[in-house]
């Protein structure tokens, strides 16, 4: 029997991937995974620790490993929230494009900044000007999110429940 597709959420930091992912998994009766959490569980350490000890490169290797074992294993029917940098590696984009429904949760740079300003667990925003960093990342990543997306949903002016409903209506 053909596997049911996984629903994978991509988008920048602050797009609401984890919140929307949880809502979708409840509404659809699918299991929910947060890739950052899976990486942390596998490493037995949190993301800031991984960045500090292994650099961004070490984190990206762990990210690809976790993505590939979740998506290419027997897991089906799950909702997966990814980290904002998931589209940076060709290998990851190939995995994303391989039969999953990929939803790009779009958020403007000012919304990303607003929504990430209260947390301090994102290593990429700990040095320099966070707005400039988010803008730079957005310029590189927005076309890549669009390249892998089956569906793009705008989140700026929407409550998480309304974003989740929009996704449910479209898939
Ligand atoms: C990252 C985003 C983070 C996390 C890591 C790197 C990025 O996830 O994976 O800090 O490169 O944009 P969220 O998008 O869930 O914040």
From TrEMBL:
Binding-site residues, Mg(2+): 18
Annotated positions binding substrate: 36, 60, 84, 141
Protein name per Swiss-Prot or TrEMBL: Shikimate kinase
InterPro entries assigned: P-loop_NTPase, Shikimate/glucono_kinase, Shikimate_kinase/TSH1, Shikimate_kinase_CS
Named cofactor requirement(s): Mg(2+)
Its EC number(s): 2.7.1.71
Pathway: Metabolic intermediate biosynthesis; chorismate biosynthesis; chorismate from D-erythrose 4-phosphate and phosphoenolpyruvate: step 5/7
Keywords linked to the UniProt accession: Amino-acid biosynthesis, Aromatic amino acid biosynthesis, ATP-binding, Cytoplasm, Kinase, Magnesium, Metal-binding, Nucleotide-binding, Transferase
UniProt binding sites for ATP: 14-19, 122, 158
Catalytic activity: shikimate + ATP = 3-phosphoshikimate + ADP + H(+)
Role: Catalyzes the specific phosphorylation of the 3-hydroxyl group of shikimic acid using ATP as a cosubstrate.
Summary of subunit composition and partner proteins: Monomer.
Domain of life: Bacteria
Textual note on the cofactor: Binds 1 Mg(2+) ion per subunit.
GO molecular function, one term: kinase activity
Organism: Marinomonas sargassi
Family: Belongs to the shikimate kinase family.
CDD domains in the record: SK
UniProt subcellular location: Cytoplasm
Organismal lineage: Bacteria, Pseudomonadati, Pseudomonadota, Gammaproteobacteria, Oceanospirillales
Pfam family, one: SKI
